[in-house]
Design a protein that fits this description.
Elements: E1 2-6, E2 9-13, H1 22-38, H2 51-65, E3 70-76, E4 89-94, E5 100-104, H3 106-119, H4 121-128, H5 134-146
Antiparallel strand pairs: 1-2, 3-4, 4-5
């Protein structure tokens, strides 16, 4: 029997060696248990964003990021960046077909942040570092509308 200490936990393993491949067998067993130990922790983190950060993302997207695939029309709220107004809504249209692609509102902004965190972590990190550009704004708006990156 072999007792191995890994990451503060003891893992007990019994095995028999029949051939001269002892090292391979032992390393396979250790590798198997290391993978089990490494995958046992999951951390969920909640991050709160200021409205100003979201407005900066929208500004980057509206004023340069999405121009190659979309146009926008303010449908609710007093101005483009009035996101704290519950009536705020921006319709997004396809540049080529003029079809409605979707609407941005408070709910879509929240889900878009989660999607961007999950599928575009480098862009999400740019948001956290306050290093947003037109591409980051574009990715954010696509995440809000489509839950994926469709263009670019």
């Amino acid at each position: 029997m072999m007792l191995i200490k890994m990451s503060g936990a003891y893992i007990q393993q019994t095995y028999k060696v029949y051939y001269s491949y002892d090292t391979h067998i032992v390393s396979s067993i250790i590798s198997f248990y290391l993978k089990k130990v490494r995958n046992m922790f999951e951390v969920n983190i909640t991050h709160k964003h200021y409205s100003e950060d979201i407005i900066n993302l929208l500004c980057s997207g509206f004023e340069g990021g999405i121009n190659y695939w979309a146009s926008v029309v303010l449908e609710g709220g007093k101005h483009w960046y009035d996101i704290e107004n519950p009536d705020w809504c921006v319709a997004v249209y396809d540049n080529e077909t003029d079809d409605l692609l979707g609407r941005l509102n408070i709910s879509s902004l929240q889900s878009g942040l989660k999607t961007m965190h999950d599928i575009a972590p480098s862009h999400y990190n740019n948001l956290l570092k306050e290093d947003c550009d037109a591409i980051t704004g574009d990715v954010f708006i696509q995440c809000c509308l489509f839950d994926e990156i469709v263009y670019g």
